[in-house]
Design brief:
The protein has about 300 residues and is α+β, with helices and mostly antiparallel strands. Helix content is about 30%, strand content about 25%. The strands form 6 sheets. Strands 6-7-13-11-12 form a 5-stranded antiparallel β-sheet, with helices on both faces. α1 runs antiparallel to α2. It is globular.
Length: about 300
């Protein structure tokens, strides 16, 4: 990387939040991934704007992450700058039945704050291990709920023009595991949610019920990126994989979970190559046996 660029980055962001040759295995829930050139954790909109403007001026590649919970970084790492919009940019503000959360706020933390405020409608997200930013980007969902069901508006940074824009729920064009941010040059900065007042005991009961379902059915004791594949129309990915005889299928340190076939897990010292090979093998076998194309839900950073 250009040494002048690195110094200019440190002129925008405090040095302790700028890491060089940082292993991405430290920042993904898969616990794999080689080093990026520079890792920057931002704490406000001004830093985000300034960093994006600087990188654009240098024509430097960059990639934005939140909690790294839906991300697979290759063993070779990433040649460019990783911008983390995470723990340093995670404020949550609740006024009545309106919740404003910065992009780095964990969905679990937002759900817990909603519980304290006796707000219902966000229980479905109480166990999703991602951030508001990542959740909005892919319209995260679980147990019959999706973020699009509760979002009123989203603040984004257009990284081509440098503009900060507000987009309504309709303008975000949400669909299954998709938002317009996957096509447009948008970085999610925050979201406003509209919930309903409810009974705190009922809300907690529902969150506890969902937690029990996750704990009993999902391999939470192993590093993973959650559900590895999107749900194919008319099918369930986990059942297809199980019916293909792939439960427990292993490549190196990567395995199709014996607890839930929809999860690829790191059973110990897996490499990104192990995981990618396993994903390809699963897709090939399911295609051969059932003529169904499985599409990865996890984002693979090239």
């Amino acid at each position: 990387m250009n040494s002048n660029l690195l110094e200019e980055i440190k002129g925008i962001v405090e040095s302790e939040r700028v890491l060089v040759n940082e292993p991405m295995s430290k920042h993904t829930t898969f616990r794999v991934g080689g080093p990026c050139d520079v890792y920057v954790s931002i704490k406000n909109e001004k830093e985000a704007e300034s960093i994006i403007r600087l990188l654009s001026a240098y024509n430097e590649p960059f990639f934005v992450i939140g909690n790294g919970s839906n991300l697979l970084v290759k063993d070779e790492g990433y040649r460019g700058v990783i911008i983390e919009i995470g723990k340093n940019y995670s404020d949550i503000n609740i006024q009545g039945d309106i919740v404003e959360a910065k992009a780095g706020a964990l969905l679990v933390k937002v759900a817990n704050e909603c519980l304290k405020a006796s707000l219902t409608g966000f229980e479905f997200a109480s166990g999703i291990p991602g951030t508001i930013g990542g959740g909005v980007f892919m319209n995260a969902g679980a147990y019959g709920g999706e973020l699009k069901d509760v979002i009123e508006k989203v603040k984004v940074l257009n990284y081509k023009t440098g503009e900060i824009l507000e987009k309504s729920c309709d303008e975000m064009m949400f669909s299954y595991r998709h938002s317009i941010a996957k096509e447009e040059p948008f970085i999610i900065l925050s979201a406003v949610l509209k919930l309903s007042h409810g009974n705190i005991d009922d809300i907690k009961s529902r969150m506890d019920e969902l937690k029990e379902q996750r704990t009993s059915k999902q391999p939470l004791e192993y590093p993973s990126a959650g559900s590895t594949f999107k749900r194919p129309e008319g099918y369930f990915a986990g059942k297809l994989i199980q019916d293909a005889g792939l439960k427990g299928y292993t490549v190196g340190g990567a395995q199709v979970s014996e607890k839930h076939s929809g999860f690829v897990i790191n059973i110990g010292d897996a490499t990104a190559a192990d995981i990618l090979t396993l994903i390809d093998d699963v897709r090939d076998k399911v295609k051969d046996q059932f003529d169904v194309e499985l599409e990865p839900e996890v984002c693979i950073l090239q």
